[in-house]
Each structure stands twice: as C-alpha cells, then as structure tokens.
Amino acid sequence: MQPRLITLTTDFGVRDAYAAAMKAVIMSVAGTHARLLDVSHEVAPQDVMEAAFVLRATLPYLPADSVHVVVVDPGVGSARRPVAIRVGDTHFVGPDNGVIPLILDQQKPDEIVVLDNRRFWRTEEPSATFHGRDIFAPAAAHLATGVQLGSLGSRTDVLQPLHWALPIVDDQGIRGWIVHVDRFGNCVTNITADHAGELTSSERQRTKIYVGSARLEGIHRTYADVADGDPVAVIASTGFVEIAVNGGDAATLLGIRKGSPVNLLYADTDESRGSDAGRGGEEQPQAIHASEPSHHA
Amino acid sequence: MQPRLITLTTDFGVRDAYAAAMKAVIMSVAGTHARLLDVSHEVAPQDVMEAAFVLRATLPYLPADSVHVVVVDPGVGSARRPVAIRVGDTHFVGPDNGVIPLILDQQKPDEIVVLDNRRFWRTEEPSATFHGRDIFAPAAAHLATGVQLGSLGSRTDVLQPLHWALPIVDDQGIRGWIVHVDRFGNCVTNITADHAGELTSSERQRTKIYVGSARLEGIHRTYADVADGDPVAVIASTGFVEIAVNGGDAATLLGIRKGSPVNLLYADTDESRGSDAGRGGEEQPQAIHASEPSHHA
Amino acid sequence: MQPRLITLTTDFGVRDAYAAAMKAVIMSVAGTHARLLDVSHEVAPQDVMEAAFVLRATLPYLPADSVHVVVVDPGVGSARRPVAIRVGDTHFVGPDNGVIPLILDQQKPDEIVVLDNRRFWRTEEPSATFHGRDIFAPAAAHLATGVQLGSLGSRTDVLQPLHWALPIVDDQGIRGWIVHVDRFGNCVTNITADHAGELTSSERQRTKIYVGSARLEGIHRTYADVADGDPVAVIASTGFVEIAVNGGDAATLLGIRKGSPVNLLYADTDESRGSDAGRGGEEQPQAIHASEPSHHA
C-alpha cells in the first residue's frame, strides 16, 4: 500500500529541531519514504485559531486520505487529552484543545479516540513537554501505514469545543475583526463570502468598510481593481474578506493588526449615517466598535 | 516514467499556507510521490529581481529536465498573462512579468505558451488573487508528469522583457550596486567575475572598492584572506563580486543596504586620484555615485 | 539499495538559495528520489555550538544509517579541513571545526577521512566560500548511495576538539548558563538531568534556581505544574533543564538571554544562606556569578 500523506501544522518554528524530531519519529515508524508535507511550522506560538486557519486554507486541495497532525499545544503536560479522529477517510491527530472542531467547522467526526494505548507511543515514558514527538508523530505514522484508528486507544464521544468567533450581522451591516495578517501585510477578516453573500452585486460595490485608518468602498474581485498603492477589500483565495493595498503592505499603511475591528456597512445605512451627521466638508468615519472577540463564543 | 523535479520559488513565506496549498495541488495532479524542491519562499515580497537571483543561484546544479515554478506576482488578477516556456528540456512556469527573461539571461526560449487552456487549471473559476495555486501549480504538475507544453494553451512569440540592470564599465572602473544582502550580511553586487575579468591578477589585487563606509583593497579569493573582523571583496559562489566582513555582518558593520552604490576603481586611476587630492593626513574616500538602478534598462 | 537518509543542519537560512543549491547537488549525485531531512537551516550565523545542539536534539530518533551534513563554517576558505567520519553505521560530514566532537560527545569515531579526493567534489575548482555545495553535499550524496568512506579521501586520526562548556558542580549547587533560547522564549540551560540526578525527589522539589529576574522553586515535571503566567524549571524533552513560563515567553518576561548565568542551589545551602543573611522583610536573591562561559574548556 502507498503510505498516506502526513501533513504537519505546528508552532515549533523552523529554527529549533522540534519539527525535525517529529519527522524523524515518523520516519522511524513509516520509513524514510514517508510522504510528508509541511503546512506551516510558523503558526504564532500557542495560537490554536491560527493553526486551524492555515490548515483549513490547504485542506481542500489535499488527498482525502491524508493524516493531518496539528500540534499547537499550550496545555502540553496538563490534563488535556491527546486524540485522533476520523472524518470519512481523513484523520486528524493532536491535542484535544479545540483545534480539531475549529478545522472541521460543521463536519462531525465519525470516530474519536483518546491516544492512550502506550504501545503506539514512541516510549512508555513520554516527555511531559513534547507530545508532538512522543505521542502525535508516532500515531500519525501508524495511521499512515494502515493501523486502524481504534487500535490507538479508547473510543470517546466528545471533543473539547472551540468555535470560530463569528462576526455580528444585523440590518446595518457586519461587524467582525482581523484574524490574521499575512507576510504581505494582507489582513484577513473573519467575514466570509457567505456573510457578504446576500448582497447583490450592486450592493456589494456600494458597501463601505471601515478598518484601521481606512474607509473602503465596495468588495472587489482583485487587488488590481484599484490603483497602485490604494487600499482594497477583496474576497481572498481562502473565502474570507481580506483588506489589502494594491502593491503595498496594508497592515503597515493602514495601521491594522490582528484583532483590529472591521465594520462593513451596507450602502443605504451608510448614506443615511452620512446625512444624519449633517456635516459639510470631509466625511469623518464614525468608529463602530466590534464587541471584543469572543473566541469561545 | 519518473516524474520530473518541480522547484518552487515564491515570496509566499513559510508562515502562511500558500506554499503548502501549491504543493497540495501539485500532489493532487502528480501524486504524493511528486518530486519537489523549495528554492525559496522567502523572496522579499513582490521582488521579481530577487526571485530571479535566487533561482539562478540554484539552476546550474539542478536536473536539466526540471520544471521551475516562479511566483512573485505583483500583478496577480490584472491583465498580465500566465505563461510557461521551454528551453531545451527545462520548463519555467509563472506570470509573464519579466521574471523568466531575467532567469534566462541571454538564452532564448524554444517555446512559449499562454496558460489559457482551462482544462489544465485547478478550477474553471480560479481565484483572482492566487494563480500560484489555481493555474501555475497544476501547469507544473502536468508538465512534470509528461503533458506537452503545447497542450496547456496558445503559442505566443514574446515575453514581457525585464533585464538585469548592468553596471557601468569605463576607463576608470566599474560602477554598480548591491542587489542582495544575505542573512550573514554579505552584500552581493551586480558586478560579475566577467566584468572584473579583464584585470590581471596584479591589477585585481590593487583595485580599490568603495562601498558604504568602507574602502577595500583588491578582490580576494576568500573571506579568510583578511584578518577577523576586516572587510573583504570576494568573487562569491554565484559568480558575483560580494562585499563581506570576515566573521561578521558586512551590511551592519559597513552601513550597506540593497541598492547601495559600489565603485570599483582600477589601481592606476585611484592612485592618480589620490595624488590629485594632494591632501596629507587621512585619506577621504570620494563618493562616486552610481546612476540610479534602472531595472527596466 | 534504498538510499540512506541525508540530514542537513546549516546556518544558511531559508531565504537565500544556499540550502537549495546543496540539495540540488545531492540530487545530481543520488537522484531526485534522494531522502532528505532538514534539521534546521536557521542555526544562528556561525554558531557551531547551536548547530551541535539542534542536531543532537534530533539524532536519537533518526535511522542509525543516516548521513548527517553539518555546515556551520566560520572558517570556510581557510586551512580548516573538510572531513567525514563514521561511528558505527552513522556518518557525519562537515568542516573540521569542532562541531562533530560536540555532536558525538563521549563517542569515539570509528573512521575519520579528510575529503581530499577531488573526484568526489562537485568540481575540481570548488568555490572558496561555499564548500557546503561543492564538497560536503556531494560527499554526503556519495555516502548515501553506498560509496565507502575511505574512498572520499585520506585517513586521519584526529579531529579538531571542541567540548561542551560544562556547568560547575559543588556542595552548594550547580552553576551553569543559558545555551539556547527557543522561539517560545523557553531558555535551555547547560545543566542536564544527569547533573541534577543525584538529588532525591524531595531535594529536587526544594532546589532554588536563580536566573534572570526570577527565583524558582524546584524542578518540575511540566509547564502546567505551575499557574498560568508563572515561571517554572523543567527537564526539557532534550534532557536539559529548561526555564519556561507557563503559557508565556520566559526570555522576555524574566530578562534572560543566551549566556545568562543560572544558579541552582541545593535546598539546605539556600536555607542556611537565608539565615546567615539575617535580614527581615523580603528576601534578596544573592547573585552567584557563573564563571564566564568557556566554550573550549
């Protein structure tokens, strides 16, 4: 049998040897011809939500029978359980800290197992600070080479829940925030194409978006829809609304950071707001604060 | 058939999942046993010239039948064309933004194709912001598995031109600039061994080089030709003249940045300049400004 | 024969194409199906000791017949010799600058060879600044594909020595220092579980540790043994005592850097010290300075 692909998503970085140690353990089980794909090892330290975000951006393009290891694990050594789950033919392996439900979103696991069968650990006395190497890597390697999930430990029915913090949608518009700033300074919001989807094409073009120091008009198709150096809102390749600057770094230029509020106002509302204000001269964007991000909403 | 090696050169970074998504798409076409080599994903954002520079530094050592994907794409979503070309048995895939001519230098493509056959895209409705995933990655995977270039789209005869900005050579010397600063602080100039090649070995040793706050004597064989902590000019492994500090960070120590002018004066010229100045005491390096880098020269 | 795994540990970074050029050369010898594992390319520039540290953290989990290339090479181009060694079935390839003895610790090489057989270089005229590409990469690839070590050059009996700087152990306690700060801000000391091993479990719990601005009590099993945000000393997965903050960045929060002294005082000593001082009020940690790190001790 061709071994299944194993993907790795961690916050271990590429400077230290943590990721390499996980791969070494995988190879010791599955052979040096194991199929490995680094999704990212540069997830912000202990940022479970970012880990889910980066893996979700890759998931649709990966083989359905892949084994995904996600180790962003603020609680390593504490009572949180090591788990592996199966959805259809896909496996996920990692700490039971909410990251898997975030990745699955609406999907329900077909099978959940607590990784308590020590026969499948690297050693019977695993490090208390590095379960990635001693529990998760060998579990993934065994799954990739055909071991049944049920062999790895005890069945359970529940995972620790953790939900995406959803934007607030009302008559006036959508209030969300920035969940990720990529290396180009593009700012990804938690507002999806679906949230914005009920707008007609013409409404979409007249929507006003307030974020950082910018007031944007409309949701566009691509960065190049605006002039060089101008800010623009687009539906990003991941399906989320993204704030960018054509040819520039939006985070720096517009003063946006992870967590910054984003207010998307439907055209009519904004116009009435404009006339309510009744001012001449330059229009002052009126701050509408998103409620504090509630990650456990 | 053994699949061809696919190399990836992008400015996507390794923190986000962009590079992983490209690899996932390649695997979905060519299988998880696809041969992949990351040249760099840390090209400075939107720096087409740096992308060409890093790929060229690897190209001579790679199999001749490799497929090279280069996605540094400031114009994604605009009218610039997605292309693939063939030179002998080697393929290059990327946006038609000048990067391929930079890599090829004097070589002429044998075949150029606009990637407009949607059958070979990941989807008929590609993202407007991520052609790397939706157009370039599948094109490379198809080429690696034996699809003929001609099948991927319409033939064309021209590529968007972009040339290396060449140094200015005259009787007095060579005026160039810094095109790249590596992680050690070594500063790569756009002056090649060829430009400096007409000097005799003795002239080469007496050449004076002005760059940042430094005045260097001679082009040396290796960093260790000078004392620890001293600046030195060498012919780097890439064939370009490089400014370094033995055991130190030349960029920081000498105040050099990408774009800094570099003036290489032939020995005789410099000596006459020295006596013209007719000053006693400490010699003042006289700034000779390179003309502004003209990347589209 | 299945080719042996080749691991790479360098300070070349992932932005430049140096690591990619080494892999390209390996593939040109061993084929594109060569088995490669990046241990780290982000070793701090020219930090031989960090290179040894990261490779040692991976070594126990790798196949015994692997070929390990370690290129952190401040002396490239100088008289230092390029070498390869064999210990049992494992090979190491790199500059003879002390890194290999650091990795081997107490183990003795079975065979040492100076890589002076130019037939196995990439070219007879290697770059003076990039032996990684021109000498070490091809040597590793040849070893991985079955070439005998003895063919690569002349036998020799000695390696340049370089030893771990060991902590000082006396009646009062152990005086060491921080040898590595990882991306989470965890601070690895040069004090191993063995040094601390003679303490009883109860003594271990009452041990006082002074480091940066912190005074810690006891060596714990895991970060989660203390409250969120509290500092803690644990035995890390690498076997070294590590200073961490549960859920936080110890280096920043406690003002610790690479080279910072760490003083571990046995419980009785500390108590007597406390009463000797005879002060009321808040206890003042009394600085006990480690001798300057002596890396060639």
Keywords:
Rossmann fold; alpha+beta; 26% strand; 297 residues; 7 helices; 16 strands; 7-stranded mixed sheet; elongated; 9-stranded mixed sheet; Elongation Factor Tu (Ef-tu), domain 3; disordered C terminus; homotrimer
| Estimated helix fraction of chain A | 10-25%
The coarse overall form of chain A would be elongated
How many strands appear in the DSSP assignment of chain A?
A: 16
Tally of discrete structural domains of chain A: 2
Oligomeric state of shown chains: homotrimer
Structure in a nutshell:
Chain A is an alpha+beta fold and 297 residues long. In chain A, 22% of the residues lie in helices and 26% in strands.
Task: Describe the protein.
- The structure is a homotrimer of 297-residue chains.
- In chain A, the strands form two sheets. In chain A, strands 8, 9, 10, 11, 12, 13, 14, 15 and 16 form a nine-stranded mixed sheet that branches. In chain A, strands 2-1-3-5-4-6-7 form a seven-stranded mixed sheet, sandwiched between helices.
- Residues 270-297 of chain A have low confidence and may be disordered.
- In chain A, 22% of the residues lie in helices and 26% in strands.
- Chain A has helices at residues 18-30, 48-56, 99-104, 131-144, 201-206, 250-254, 267-277, and strands at 6-10, 36-40, 67-71, 82-87, 90-95, 111-114, 154-156, 168-169, 173-181, 187-192, 208-211, 214-217, 219-220, 231-235, 240-245, 261-265.
- In chain A, α1 runs parallel beside α4.
- By secondary structure, chain A is of the alpha+beta class.
- Chain A has two domains: 6-156, 3-Layer(aba) Sandwich (Rossmann fold); 168-277, Elongation Factor Tu (Ef-tu), domain 3 (Beta Barrel), CATH 2.40.30.90.
- The radius of gyration of chain A is 22 Å and the shape is elongated.
- Chain B binds chain C through residues 2, 5, 7, 14, 35, 37-43, 54-55, 57-58, 61-63, 182-184, 221-225, 234, 236-237, 242, 247, 249, and chain C through 11-18, 20-21, 23-25, 27-28, 32-33, 45-46, 74-78, 122, 127-130, 133-134.
